[in-house]
Design goal:
about 280 residues, mainly beta, Jelly Rolls, nine-stranded antiparallel β-sheet, eight-stranded mixed β-sheet, 3 helices, 25 strands, about 5% helix, about 55% strand, globular, binds fe (iii) ion
């Protein structure tokens, strides 16, 4: 057993997205451009409607997957393929933009807490221009494991024999939401060769001698196991890992491809109304 150290600690910082939504970004910043296969991590958390009410009106994506985990709140998703999705507290949404999707994500609340994460997962070159896909998961569809130490929600991948409903075939993503009780330690295998991180969003924790306060992002170093101990108030964090794609990444806003020419093509296609090529399959659970 080789415990992974904290290779880099990043304090997420506030950026304004969409029509004026405040988010805490960690991956996709000057401190960490990307963490192959992850391109961006945004944490939104506010009970001030001014931070979220403007939402994310129609915008395009090409070349990757967006995975949204809603902790609190209610968002309506609509896309160019005719899908309409309701994202509620505890639910999740997996959207493979691939060759092209135009969608909106708009709050369905005018007050109260809006809290969650959006993670961008890259696709290999062979999948970037494939057909889009869309899956939505109600809170009940997400396995919850109770142990003496923690409550673990399995969003993607496996924990203690329970598998999440999202299958990530290209990068073997593992995505857990862990609520760790005060002073308890959580141990999880994260195979060598995977890139991974921990993001603390409640309380604080210690990972290999590094203190992680709320909104701390910890990039995992080499090893095959992660050990995290909660502080006196407990801690809640997401633990995410995936297999790197090891291909060139050329990103321009909502388009992530392998070459500049492909990015230019995405802009031409969007301008000419040709970004959306295929209807996505819609699966909800
Ligand atoms: Fe989007």
């Amino acid at each position: 057993m080789n415990v992974r150290p904290v290779k880099q600690k990043i304090k997420a910082y506030e950026v304004t997205e969409g029509a004026g939504v405040t988010v805490h970004r960690s991956i996709g910043t000057p401190a960490l451009r990307n963490l192959d296969p992850f391109l961006m991590l945004d944490h939104f958390s506010s009970d001030d409607p001014g931070d979220y009410i403007a939402g994310f009106p129609d915008h395009p994506h090409r070349g990757f997957i967006t995975f949204t985990y809603m902790l609190d709140g209610h968002m309506l998703h609509k896309d160019s393929m005719g899908n309409r999705g309701d994202l509620r507290s505890g639910g999740a949404q997996w959207m493979k933009a691939a060759s092209g999707v135009i969608h909106s994500e708009m709050p369905q609340q005018t007050n109260g807490l809006m809290r969650g994460f959006q993670l961008w997962i890259n696709l290999p070159a062979s999948e970037k221009m494939s057909s889009p896909g869309y899956q939505e998961f109600s809170p009940e569809a997400i396995p919850v494991i109770e142990t003496d130490q923690a409550t673990v929600r399995v969003l993607i991948g496996e924990y203690a024999g329970s598998r999440g409903r999202v299958e990530d075939l290209h990068t073997n993503v593992q995505y857990l939401d862990v609520a760790l009780r005060p002073g308890k330690t959580f141990t999880q295998a994260v195979a060598g060769g995977l890139n991974g991180f921990v993001y603390v969003f409640e309380g604080d924790a210690v990972m290999s001698d590094t203190v992680l306060a709320t909104h701390s992002f910890a990039l995992m170093g080499e090893g095959d196991t992660v050990e995290i101990t909660a502080g006196v108030q407990g801690a809640r964090f997401i633990l995410v890992a995936g297999r790197p794609i090891n291909e060139p990444i050329v990103q321009y806003g909502p388009f992530v491809m392998n070459t500049r020419e492909e990015i230019e093509q995405a802009f031409v296609d969007y301008r000419d109304g040709k970004l959306v090529r295929d209807k996505a399959s819609f699966v909800s659970a």
